[in-house]
Structures are given as C-alpha cells and as structure tokens.
Amino acid sequence: MTTARQDTEAVRALRDLEDGRPSVRLRAALAVGTTPDPRFVDKLLERCAIEPEFFVRDMLTWALTRHPVSVTLPGLLREVRSERAQARSQALHTLSKIGDRQAWPAITGALLSDADDEVARSAWRAAVVLVPPGEESGLAASLATQLGRGDRETQRSLSRALVELGDVVLPALRAAMTASDPRVRTHALATERLLRDPDAGFGFAVEEAKRVVALGGPDPEGR
Fold first, then answer.
1. How far is CA 146 from CA 63, 90, 93, 120, in A?
2. CA quadruple 206, 209, 211, 215: dihedral, nearest 10
3. Going residue by residue through the chain (223 aa), what tens digit of pLDDT does each one get?
C-alpha cells in the first residue's frame, strides 16, 4: 500500500522522465529504479523507445531490471516486435541484462539479421546470454550468416558474440572461410583468431586475416 507522499513522488518522477533536460531525466530514471513500482514499467518502456541520450537510456534499462521479471517481460517482448528500431534495440539490451531465458523464443532470425545495425548488435548480445544449453550450435550458424556485415564496430560486436559461444562456433567459422566474399572470409578468420587468442585484439586479428586472404588463404585446416 502506497502513501500519499509516495504517490506524489511517483507522479513527479514520471513527469520528469519527459523533461527537456537530460540531467533531470537521468535523475528521474534513477529515482524510479531506486523505488520500483509496477506503475512505472509502461512509462519506462515508452521512454526507452524515444530517449536520445545514451546514459539516460542505460539508466532506464537499469530501472527496468529493478522490477520483477513477471512485470517487465511482457512489455519487453512486445517492444522487440516494435516498428521503431530504438524500441527493439533497447528492449533487447534490457533482456540481455535481465538474463531470463523465458525470453529466448523472442530472439528470432529476423532480429539477428535486422537491417538496423544497432538492433542486430543488441540481438547478438542478447542471444548469447539467453541461448539455452544445447542450442549454441544453431545460434552459431545463425550468427555466422552475418559475418562480413557492417562497419568495424559492428563486426567487432559479432566476433565478440561468437567468441563467447566458445569452440562450438568453429564449424560455422570454417564454412565461412570458404565464402566467395572476401569480407566474409576475413571476418571469419579474424573471429577464429580471437577465439584462439582473446588477447590478440580485434584490429590486429582483422589485419592478420586480411593478409591471409590476400595471399589466397586460409588453408583447408582454417589456418
């Protein structure tokens, strides 16, 4: 049972989430997360879809994680199907932070290959967190279809996701090393290099892979 003062504070926090000043929105999200209340959840989800500031979005996600999964999960699953790219991306990011595998069926092939790079990157991170034991190989095969995609940061995100799955990704990487597209071969080689030596650094792995591809590699053993 809430008091009149708590109701007043809740109304103020919800109003401040729409304030024109990022600092005020940040404080409001912090306040909402500090005192979780199911009444906040829809507003937090709504704000995630449109909030322009990264640090405020991150606080909104934190505030959502402070609420019971039974309250947040239905809304998050709805948001991953939104037509708004930011809504999909932020919902996926939040699901990866919550880590409840009930959300796994929502990580579809369409999300893993979403035309928006930020959505796809969020889907890759969420998938690695949520994948049930025994389904890692299928996920690796799906992720491997995205090799060679996007800019350096997008490729780095995909490589990190694949490396987190461990050696189960090797068959998919080896298959990608024979692709006709040199970008795919390079990315697959760089990812395999990171899997063998996580401390190598993505930039170094890519440059090494480029040299191998330029010389006509890799060899049949994937080296």
1. 32, 20, 19, 9
2. -160
3. 555 565 667 778 888 999 989 999 999 999 999 989 998 999 999 999 999 999 999 999 999 999 999 999 999 999 999 999 999 999 999 999 999 999 999 999 999 999 999 999 999 999 999 999 999 999 999 999 999 999 999 999 999 999 999 999 999 999 999 999 999 999 999 999 999 888 778 877 888 888 888 877 664 344 4
Structure tokens at 160: 């990190």
DSSP for 114-174, please give it: -SSHHHHHHHHHHHHHHPPTT-HHHHHHHHHTTTT-SSHHHHHHHHHHHHHHGGGGHHHHH
**What is the reported pTM?**
0.89
Q: Determine contact, residues 159/202, Cβ cutoff 8 Å.
A: yes
Give start and end residues of each alpha helix (H) in the chain. Answer: 4-16, 22-34, 41-48, 54-65, 69-79, 85-98, 109-112, 117-130, 136-144, 152-165, 170-176, 182-196, 202-214
Cis preceding-peptide flag for 218 (omega within 30 of 0): yes
Q: Round to whole Å and give the CA distance between 7 and 24.
A: 19
Burial (CB count <10 Å: 0-12, 13-18, 19+), residue 203? exposed
Report the distance separating Cα 160 and Cα 182, nearest Å: 20
Residue with tokens 């990580």: 107
